[in-house]
Write a structure and sequence with these properties.
- With 437 residues, the chain is of the alpha/beta class.
- It contains 14 helices and twelve strands.
- Strands 3-2-1-10-11-12 form a six-stranded mixed β-sheet.
Amino acid sequence: MGARHRGVVGLLLVSLSVVLAGEGHFWQLTDLHLDPWYQPGADVETKCRNFTDTSNPKAGLFGDYHCESSTTLLDSWLDFMRSEYGDVEYVFWTGDSSPMNENYPLPSDDLQMSQQRVFDIVQILTDSIQSTFGPNNYTTILPCLGNHEVWRPSVFYGPEDNRTINILHTIGTMWEPWFLDQNAHDDFFQYGFYSSLIEPGLRLISLNTLWCDSGNVRSWAHKNGDGNDIMFSWLEGILAQSLSDGEAVWVIGHVPMSAPNTIPYCSDQWNSLILQYASIIKLQVYGHTHSDFYTVFSDKLGTPKNVLYVCPSLTPESWHKDGANPGARIYTYDKETKEILDYTQYYCNLTKANEEGFITWEVEYSALSDYPLKSLAPSEWQSLTDSLETDTTLFEQVWQHYHIEHASECDEACKADFLCQLEKPTEKQYVECKEKS
């Protein structure tokens, strides 16, 4: 895991795709949380899996804000992306395949959730994404692990543990056609992270954030073996080599590498790397939270240096009590500089879809069109954050986007916490910000 080796196969593949000046696009798919047992008309109290004779609310045709993604919702989502922008350069699948509601019974007593059932769902989604974007021979699909690729969720062990080895080998085999070179293949099978040169001058890093997940009790107890140390040492080598080679870098991951989503060790280490290599890291995208926000990374002088983006989920169920509308996001980038130029967030109004009997996917907002931004530079996002403190109309707009047009009221304490998340990426910074609020 020292110096980076260039995969000959990967170089041959990327050399076939000559990058011309202009704009490119990529979709981010995240937190699909497919529930194959979702049943329209089922009791919402059973997570939309079982029918009862109670007067409880019933599951809608396409979904419910308190339940996971139905197969019908998934199919509509993928069909929309293919028809709207089928020939994108990339699809980034940033984790979480299986349902979160592991404590609720499945439709039959002889069915129990297990790691094998999680694998089955990962395979279903892998096949669906491949059939949607793979046949055009133009789009490159690049995935990363989420905390719901493991059973039980968020319980992830060290790299030497047989349970980890089984997970990485089983999922790695499903995703094998998507690895662009042998080193990416080998690194994922051993550690769950990888890196590839995806076009001349552009390197993709896919993180394994499960060892950093603040929801993983083993992370707090430092019982993950050497996973984090290995990943950060590997990252240091990759980034140093990319800087030397004049490469731009894009980073994808599941759990946002910022407080309060990751343990303090990881947010500190990541913040340090981001500030050191801010000049070449052109993109960070994550999922996990089922919400829409960003976080600005600034140096000790307060100068904004980088920004991470968190994309909302497909699943309507959320940590937020009222759930959220399903979403999909496409990014536009400059093929020459590799800078992100804009992104457009799509969504469907789930209530309306269930009432009308069909789903309409529509634009929720565009970053450049709907926010007072001149570009997507970190300084612009910091200026937006500063404005949110006093501009109540702008704050309400951003807050609605956070919940994908299904937000509840945000009081002063809620607002203070939200603003801290937008500009304080380390645990220490985040805690100090909340204490001052």
